[in-house]
Amino acid sequence: MSGSIKAFSINYNPVNESNTFTNGDILQGTVVLQISKEVKIDKLYIKCKGEANVHWTESNGTDSSDDSYSAHERYFKIKQILIWDNSKMEQNGDILVTKGETHKNLVMPGHHAFPFSFQLPHGNTPSSFKGSHGSITYALQARMSRSWKIPQNVTKEFTFVSNFHGNGALLMRPLSGSVDKKLKLFTSGSVSIRASTDKEGYMQGERIKVETHIENSSSRALKLKFKLEQNQVFIAKSRKKHAAKVIFKAVEDPIPFRSKKTFTSRLKIPSNLDLTITDCNIIKVEYMLKVYLDIPYARDPEIIFPVVIIPACQYSFPQPNQVDSYASQNRRESIGTGSSFQPAFVAFPHVPAATAFGPAPNLYPSVYTQPANPVEPPPSYTDIFPDSNSSASGFNPSLLPFSPPPYTTMDSSPAPHHHTPECPTPECPTPEYPGAAGYWQSPANPDFYPTK
């Protein structure tokens, strides 16, 4: 920064330990200005936006020029005005402008922190991702304009994790497959693989459980191997660009020739692995687990299992009526080349008709004593809560969590001691330590700043 603007930055408050946001979260923070002398600002605003972009080039094979492919997809753009000169008009187009506190455009020297607050939209929005030919990004962007000055911009990205991951019951069902192969040339005989995984959807950092049975009727010892692959697909102008990446490989002990062996393998998924993305029109991220035998000088027999990576603490469990419905569906095609093995389905125990509805017995404590005669009518509301004017403790219907805090002067008196979280820096504030707020000339001589 130069001139009278010494610092221009954005700070936001994390809402969890992983510093991620999801649909419906409230994103709050401050736009920070450090000014050396009095300045007049025509407008200062901040935008919160989510978008996807792809781009790549290909040789057309006819001349020296390349064909370029690009695509863009916007999910939302929200704008909040912090300083505004009423004498100047502006067109916002399709940008949603939210209400917030606006301040006078004559800003005094010192350190200023202008609060903002956005509620991230609900709906099916893909998670953050950066790939080889495109990205899905979510960012805060502040812009300051002054007369006869080039507008100044500052951008800060944040990580968005979608809370939509399809049908949880489908992700929880086991998968299985099989493949047989006859060997020739340098290896004679045949091999057979039967494999199954405990489910299809896994959280970051979880382990994939694979049960594998090998019948090695060949003339040499063979090794069972695993490989998790990521496939990125970028789409623009009806063209697709693929990029593959191996996440990990694993190998089991050799299977001696003319023998059988069963393995139970637990394969660790990296805790920072990108999430599966299927809800973006121009970027797809998918995973597949390959279970195969390494056969020299021959095509390896393999079984391919789809794997869906979902974020930790966002796990969906199937309901009994959902899983039972899959048994009546048409038979699913077997997984893997040459496979005739039918995937297994989850079967829930039979529930008696008398207990088909309501919570499981003894799962929740009763709020009143059960009557000796079960045919008696249940107690009324006033029998349980005599005070009809009582309300839930701690509930304040007038409290709006997405309203930004007022623009105030920071108190120069020392704050009471609290447990300090790790790395409380201006770049990474916390709800307990949100960073600077308000305006002051010096800590020893605070001066209130007019906000209206």
UniProtKB/TrEMBL annotation:
Species this chain originates from: Ameiurus melas
Example GO biological process: nervous system development
From the Swiss-Prot or TrEMBL record, give the protein name: Arrestin C-terminal-like domain-containing protein
Give the protein family: Belongs to the arrestin family.
Domain Arrestin C-terminal-like stretches: 187-312
Q: Which SMART domains match?
A: Arrestin_C
Annotated Pro residues bias: 423-432
Source organism, top-level taxon: Eukaryota
One GO CC term, this protein: cytoplasm
Question: Quick one: where's region Disordered?
Answer: 403-452
Q: Which Pfam families match?
A: Arrestin_C, Arrestin_N
